[in-house]
Design goal:
CATH architecture of the largest domain: 2-Layer Sandwich
Strand order of the largest sheet: 18-22-23-30-27-26-24-25
Number of domains: 4
Number of strands: 35
Radius of gyration: 30 Å
Structural class: alpha+beta
Oligomer: single chain
CATH superfamily of the largest domain: Bira Bifunctional Protein, Domain 2
CATH topology of the largest domain: BirA Bifunctional Protein, domain 2
Length: about 650
RNA sequence: GCCGAUGUAGCUCAGUAGGUCAGAGCAGCUGAUUUGUAAUCAGCCGGUCGGCGGUUCGAAUCCGUCCAUCGGCUCCA
């Protein structure tokens, strides 16, 4: 007998070779029907794998992340089996589970898949799922595995196997399909009740652009049909938050093919919103000791040769522009830092001047690949809320922390709770990608990690994601459909000061090199506004929204009174509109609701008599009658509450 | 840049075995209505059916190409 410890710390005895499924059965039949896999001593196993020694076991169901993972991973196998049957000769790459479902990268040779094929595959999968095919694990030697897949002619699997260490390799067999796989899998395919193949895309083998592009088929499956329906409804709902859609509805921004792809045009209301965000940040930065500067949209190519950006990105950028007579070359500036370095250099600096915090809402231009352009989140012209801090080496940590304060202040004010912090370090195996000395890299990477720990940030480290000149800390937020976008960024840079030969005179009367911190708490105004729109579904906080209230006269008899209300609100700095159309008030309310205007002020005979307004809050409803002074106070109070001083 | 898809009025969309197929709703304009918490009624205006080529007696519809957009991949200073 072996001793099995369950999550509630109870211990039960079972015969050697017991399976998690059998353990589940001993608890309840219902549980046994829902067990997808099990965590045995911290490792996820098949529910039918035999346990030989004393272990701790946690049974995994659809409610566990690992349970879903096994479910979707098995679904990927099921899809592969269906594809192999429908399209014999298909070669298989990798087929993992992902956050929302799974995919399989396949090579269909000459034949390409289209959406009609997806339906066929779905049908086949459903058929195979109903056969309750089991997933049989087979542990074989590396040579045997190589032999199996070379017989099949599957070069992708062979490549994967050849990179594995010698020893046992596990294969899983379900129906007619056998895959190289670590597992674990569902007890059988009958668990998979609802199947939806969502999209088809090209994906480079092993993520390498220089290698063959395979066909990636994405799908998602569920144990119940109702859950699939629910998921599809949720996707529809998420689409309603899409900033591209809301931006159009609320007339915030647009694009024009005549201007060019990826070049956003900010409409009056969008520009208004954006300006308010800028003012908000400028105020905080002023308190934090930043000074605003302004620099041109172009700069001599030499500037970027000096900075190293030209060598790194010159070929992938907009081509240089040049003066007609001399042919002197200029670049549309892809970043602001070289300009700021020149501002630093315009006079000698003393250690007493440092840190210098130089801020600019600088518009930059980058050639983004056509396939990458995406609404306001990925554009070719955007405005960074940029600043560069020039400081002494021993000021780096404090300055870095000061920037974190600003980022946290912004996130708190705008109610961004769900963000992740990512620390990007260089790839030690690929050092030629980076510039700068070994010593400085080590120093700055350590500094970032130390500060992150000190601030208690819940961060994750990404190796190889650093900028070419230094490591960075990024703040990521998800959009409506779950994609992660980088917003704020803080980067330590020992390199540009070197290249631009920046100096300051120390207390020792010797020349020293400052350190630069690049930072942008919003990241870019475009991307930030995009994510903000999706975050609040267009219902901006009162302090930020372009129009705070709209006055709705019951009929045009009350337009005069509406104008009076409008003037009074204007005098107390409240942004309002009047809807003077000859429409019924129900119609005016509907339109104002759709425009997400926070307050609707209905005025008619009663209000004019009493010199009041009838207040309706967007998406909440009628709040009753207010004097204009009381309403103004309410608005100001709400603004005060939602935006604290930095 | 690569893979797959889409592109019809300002917006949302209908219309393709090629032939009164250029349509609807909303928006806009005009008029009527004078309205009490999510759509008043009527009339009118509006499109070289993404651009350019081709096939055909005839193309929104078929083919080619380019552009843009959407979902991914790669990239992201």
């Amino acid at each position: 007998m072996i001793r099995i410890t369950l999550p509630d710390n109870s211990v039960r005895e079972f015969p050697e070779g017991v399976t998690s499924l059998e353990i589940a059965k001993s608890i309840s039949e219902g549980l046994a029907r829902n067990v997808l896999a099990a965590k045995v001593n911290g490792e996820v196993w098949d529910a039918k794998r035999q346990i030989q020694h004393d272990s701790t076991v946690k049974l995994l169901t659809w409610n566990d992340v690992d349970g879903k993972s096994a479910f979707w991973h098995s679904s990927a196998h099921l899809m592969a089996e269906a594809i192999e049957q429908l399209f014999p000769g298909t070669k298989f790459g990798i087929g993992p589970d992902v956050e929302n479902g799974f995919y399989y990268d396949i090579d269909t040779g000459e034949r390409t898949l289209n959406e009609a094929d997806l339906l066929e595959i779905e049908k086949k999968m459903t058929e195979l799922a109903r056969q309750s095919q089991t997933f049989e694990r087979k542990d074989i030697s590396k040579d045997a595995a190589l032999a199996h897949f070379s017989e099949k002619g599957d070069e992708y699997k062979l490549e994967l196997i050849s990179e594995l260490e010698d020893g046992t390799i596990s294969l899983y067999e379900s129906g007619t399909f056998t895959d190289l796989c670590r597992g674990p899998h569902l007890p059988d395919t009958s668990f998979i009740k609802a199947i939806k193949l969502t999209s088809i895309a090209g994906a480079y083998w092993r993520g390498d652009e220089t290698r063959k592009q395979l066909t990636r088929v994405y799908g998602i499956t569920f144990p119940k049909k109702a859950e699939l329906d629910e998921y599809l409804v949720m996707l529809e709902e998420a689409k309603k938050r899409d900033h591209r859609r809301i931006g159009k509805e609320l007339e915030l921004f647009t694009f024009s093919q005549n201007v060019g792809a990826g070049l956003p045009l900010w409409l009056p209301k969008g520009a208004d919103l954006r300006e308010r965000l800028e003012t908000f940040l400028k105020k905080a930065q002023k308190r934090a000791g930043y000074e605003q500067v302004n620099t041109p949209h172009i700069g001599s190519k030499k500037l970027y040769v000096t900075s190293g950006h030209y060598e790194k990105y010159g070929q992938d950028s907009f081509r240089p522009i040049s003066t007609p007579e001399e042919g002197e070359e200029f670049l549309l500036k892809p970043m602001n830092c070289p300009h700021h370095c020149e501002i630093y250099k315009y006079k000698p600096r003393s250690y007493k001047d440092l840190p210098i915090r130089m801020a600019e809402f600088g518009t930059v231009y980058r050639y983004e690949q056509t396939g990458e352009l995406h609404g306001l989140t990925r554009v070719r012209s955007f405005t960074q809320d940029d600043a560069h801090i020039f400081c002494t080496p021993d000021q780096v940590k404090a300055e870095f922390e000061g920037v974190i304060d600003i980022v946290m202040y912004i996130f708190k004010t705008l109610d961004f709770k769900d963000f992740t912090t990512q620390i990007s370090l260089r790839d030690p195996g690929n050092k030629q990608k980076y510039i700068g000395s070994e010593e400085n890299w080590i120093k700055s990477e350590q500094a970032i990690i130390e500060v992150a720990k000190k601030r208690g940030l819940n961060f994750q480290i990404e190796v190889g994601e650093a900028a070419f000149y230094g490591p960075k800390m990024d703040f990521m937020v998800r959009d409506a459909i779950g994609r992660k976008w980088q917003l704020g960024t803080i980067q330590i840079d020992y390199n540009l000061p070197e290249r631009f030969e920046l100096e300051y005179v120390g207390s020792d009367n010797q020349k020293h090199r400052p350190v630069m911190i690049h930072r942008a708490p919003f990241g870019s105004m475009e991307r930030f506004v995009a994510v903000l729109i999706e975050h609040c579904a267009g219902k901006f906080p009162l302090w930020l929204t372009p129009d705070q209230c709209i006055i709705l006269p019951i009929s045009d008899k009350y337009n005069e009174y509406a104008k009076k209300v409008f003037e009074l609100l204007k005098n107390s700095d409240i942004r309002s509109l009047i809807d003077e159309r000859a429409e019924k008030v129900g119609r005016k309310i509907r339109d104002a609701e759709l425009k997400r205007i926070p307050y609707m002020l209905i005025v008619g005979e009663k209000e004019e008599m009493e010199q009041t307004v009838s207040v309706r809050r967007q998406s909440e409803g009628d709040l009753g009658s207010f004097s204009i002074a009381d309403f103004s106070e309410r608005v100001h109070e709400e603004v005060r509450k939602s935006i604290e001083e930095f």
